[in-house]
Specification:
mainly alpha; 434 Repressor (Amino-terminal Domain); 2 domains; 0% strand; elongated; Transcriptional regulator with XRE-family HTH domain
Amino acid sequence: MNSKAINKNDTIYRKARKRASEFNEKFKSIEGASEAIGVSKDQLSNYELGLYKQLPVDSVVRMADAYNAPELMNYYCCNECVIGKLTMSPVEICSIERLTIQILAVLNGTSINKIKESLIDITADGKITKDELPRLQEIINTLDEISVKSQSLKLWTEKYLINCCRSDE
């Protein structure tokens, strides 16, 4: 019964701290993590239990940095930020091999030159007619898909390469 309650409240923030604790002992406890992030134990505990309606942005940024979990910022923007919910797309950090295949699938499934030509054709006269709207929406959908994959690659790089290179210095 206890483990079900914990799993129910196992937020992305708690999961990120637990993953970070595999590499940094201080994140094994709320006390150590709260000290590293610069928030009180109660605040961090409430973040992890999902008791805040909206976490302070600076706390999310500090957690993302401390835990080497840039995906926390994307999650926050897509799920907790009022503006982000309307404008951001959730991204997934997966293996670089899987991500590469996903990117290639998007790029192979469409011709950039075809998109460019269609966009020029649709917008050249400065007007968009009703019959051009479906083609324009298709272009936007394809560009959105490319954008999401690009953001996934960016987060993967931040998580695995940038911090790797920092430790080599």
